[in-house]
Amino acid sequence: MALMLVVSIGLAGCAGNPSASSTESTVPTASDTQEEPLIAELTWQEAKASTEKEALEIAALIPKDKITSIVQKETGVLLSCSNTEHNWNGSTSITLTEGSEAESVVKELETAARAHYTDHRFEVSSDRTIQGTFRVEISDPATSEMYLIREDDPGVIRIASGSPCFTLPEGIYPGGDF
């Protein structure tokens, strides 16, 4: 009896959506599953620009009255994702106003990021480094795009950023500044 029930349920699942017409696809779309559609191949310049823009958006989650300056490093480096792909890595430094405690600002940023990224594109998590520094990670598991936020020097929060992976054009050497 239990076997017949399992077979019946399994066959019912194969029947598809009874409300869908025969020309409608029953395969879920990105909007059905809340996943981002696949990203078209990026150039390193597009990956860099997008990652820098997102880092500044993250920095904007810090209350303005706690910020003295935001400096985005002009160049970054390429790191290998695989034998054929690389990602662009850069950094943004946020100098805090005197009296602002970096760890509490990073914790506030974590709370703001959880509220900001409700579209499920990015996951927000936190931990402590081996040195005991509180750190927030904002990452997209689908593309490997990642932002690590922590106190760098006293009174300075650093956003280390890594773009989605991309393939370099033939003949481009991945060493040096990008």
Automatic annotation (TrEMBL):
Source taxon at top rank: Bacteria
Protein's UniProt keywords contain Signal: yes
Signal peptide: 1-20
Entry keyword set: Signal
Annotated protein name in UniProt: Lipoprotein
Species this protein is from: Arthrobacter bambusae
